[in-house]
Structure formats: structure tokens, C-alpha cells
Amino acid sequence: SDKSVQVKLVLLGEAAVGKSSVVLRFVSNEFQPNKEPTIGAAFLTQKCRLEDRVLRYEIWDTAGQERFHSLAPMYYRNAQAAVVVYDVTKASSLEKAKSWVKELQRQANPNIVIALAGNKLDLVQPKSPAADGTSIDGDEPDDATATPGEAGAAESEVPRAVPTEEAQAYAQEAGLLFFETSAKTGEGVVELFTDIAKKIPIE
Ligand code: GTP
Ligand code: MG
After folding, report:
1. Using CA atoms, how far apart are residues 128 and 154, in angstroms rounded to an integer?
2. CA–CA separation, 141 vs 139, rounded Å?
């Protein structure tokens, strides 16, 4: 018999934070470096296997551009779960996430499971030492270019704009699950959807 239960899940968040990319990672285990903005919303499904049951996620991946904001209630209506995404390199995207959480807590199903996801974690993680183009036994004197505390920092690294502790404290206070993710490397993505699934009540 098919024991899978359908769970309607909606993704919300500012444009370009990586909602579609997180879903693509979860559903197809792929990443597209130049993913185009979503128009309206996209619908995808994916099974999620827990120890004692299987859920079938019905995922509404909404468009973050402001002109689509008024469509959102159609997608979060009756949703059992929501993932509100921000970008760890963009502080304003956490403010936008907070406003989505407020809207969900006022207007969505009162039992909705909400997760906050800080995406693009790969951009703020130190690259491996070999990737930054320097070598330990190079020709240059040790003190020529080094800045205290920056040893090993790669040039391409983007500064983090949202400290983990800040977002985590907000999530705890608002009663949300909290994750940091990278759609690019896949870090945290399966955990995000699996931990949400564990919180969905068995009917
Ligand atoms: P809208 O559909 O306009 O709301 O955007 P979105 O939130 O769906 O963002 P999307 O997934 O389209 O990603 C926007 C851009 O960020 C794309 O170029 C992605 O390749 C890139 N991106 C998404 N996630 C990540 C990530 O985890 N790491 C890095 N480095 N880039 C990412
Ligand atoms: Mg999108």
C-alpha cells in the first residue's frame, strides 16, 4: 500500500535569494549558476523518506519579485509547511524574510511549520588554502601582503552580512526551524526538508 502523505509546502523570500535553486537541489540534486527569476510560481514534487513514513512534498516555489507579492496568499493558503529563505550575504533579505514570517503567522494555517533558511552559505565559507592562488613556500616575503587575521582568506570570498547567531536567535524567538544552506554545494538542503517533515503531524 502507498503510505505516502501529501504535504503542501510553499517557499517565500526576497528575489534572487535562491528559493528555486534550493528546490532544484532537493528535487534533482542539481545546481544552475545562472538560474532565471521565477515568474508567478513553479510547482514541483518530491518524496521525503523518514524512518517510519514517506511524505510527498507538493512544493510551490513562489516568485520573489515585488510585483508578484499579491499572488503569495494563493500559494500559502492551506500550506502545511513554509520555507522562508534569505541570503546570508544580504542583510535586507533577512528583513524581508521576517516580514514574510509575520504575514504567514497572521494569515496562513495556524499549525503551519515554518523554517527559516539562510542560503548561499558557500559564498562565506573559507575556500581551501590551495584555491586562493597563494602558496606557503612562495617567493614573496611573508610580511609583504599579509594582513593580521586574513591569512588564507580567498579573494573571491563574499562578506557575511547576517551572523548565524543573529538569525538563529530571531528564529528561536519566532518559533521557527532554522538552517543555513547552500543550493550550490547541497549543504543543509536535505536536512531542511527532512526536519520539516518530522514536524508535520501524522493524520
Ligand atoms: P526569484 O525566483 O526571482 O524569487 O529568485 P530565487 O529566490 O528563486 O533565486 P534563484 O534560485 O533563481 O537564484 C538566484 C541566483 O543565485 C542564481 O544565479 C543562482 O544560481 C544563485 N544561487 C542560488 N543559490 C545559491 C547558493 O547557494 N550559492 C551560490 N553561490 N549561488 C546561489
Ligand atoms: Mg525562483
Report:
1. 8
2. 7
Instruction: State if residue 19 touches ligand 1 by the CB under 6 angstroms criterion.
Output: yes
pTM of the full predicted structure?
Answer: 0.89
DSSP three-state, residue 120: coil
Nine-digit cell at 149? 587575521
Question: Rounded to the nearest whole angstrom, what is the distance from the C-alpha of residue 5 to the centroid of ligand 2?
Answer: 26
Question: 176 C-alpha vs ligand 2 centroid, how far in Å?
Answer: 22
Backbone angles phi and psi of 87, in degrees to 5: -115, 120
pLDDT tens figures, 3-47: 679 999 999 999 999 999 999 999 999 999 999 999 999 999 999
- Say yes or no: ipTM exceeds 0.85: yes
Residue 19 CB burial class (10 angstroms; 0-12, 13-18, ≥19): buried
User: Is 33 near ligand 1, meaning CB less than 6 Å away?
Assistant: yes
Residue 118: φ, ψ to 5°? -90, 105
